[in-house]
glutathione-specific gamma-glutamylcyclotransferase
Amino acid sequence: MSVQRQFETAFDSSGNDLWIFAYGSLMWRPGFDFAEQVPARLIGEHRALCVYSFDHRGTPERPGLVLGLDRGGACRGIAFRVAASRREATIAYLREREQTTHVYREVTRSVWLEDDARRRVSALAYVVDRGHVQYAGRLTLADQARYVRQGHGRSGHNRDYVLSTVRSIESQGFRDLKLHQLAELLYNDTPMPR
C-alpha cells in the first residue's frame, strides 16, 4: 500500500475531525473552513526557509524561497480543527495548494495544543522532502534575502510571504529568530513594485 493511500486510510476512515498544523502561509491564509484554531507546538521538526519556490513565490528561472518543516527542533504554529464533514474537501484543497511540485511529504504528526487542556492531537502536516530538487537546505541570511527579494510567482511577491508570516507569528505572541532577522533586512528595503 502506498504511503499516500496509508495516509488516506488513516484519516479518511476515522470519521473524526481533522487537525492541520500550520507553520507558514496557512497560518495567515488557511483557505479552508475550520471549526477551531489553537496555538500549537510540533516537536521533532522546525520551521525553515528551506524550499526553493518554482511556483507560488518564484519560477524555475528565478526561484523564491518558502518555508518547510525540516528535521530537528520544534515549531510553534497554529492547529486548525476541521469538521469531519469537511475532511475530504479540505485535504483535496491542501493537496492542490501544497503539492504542486511534490516538494512536501504529507504526514501526520503529534501536535501539542497550547490551550488550557494542553491536549495532544494527531495533525496533518507538510514536511519538506530533503531528496527533492527544490530542497535548499541551510542557506546564509544573505542568500535567503537574495532569493526572497527576487522571488515572484503566481501567489505574489516572496517578500510579502515572509513579512506576512512574521506578522502572523507575532500575532500569536512569539518570535522566530531567523525569520525575524530576515524580516529586518526586508523591512529596510524599498517597497517592491506591485
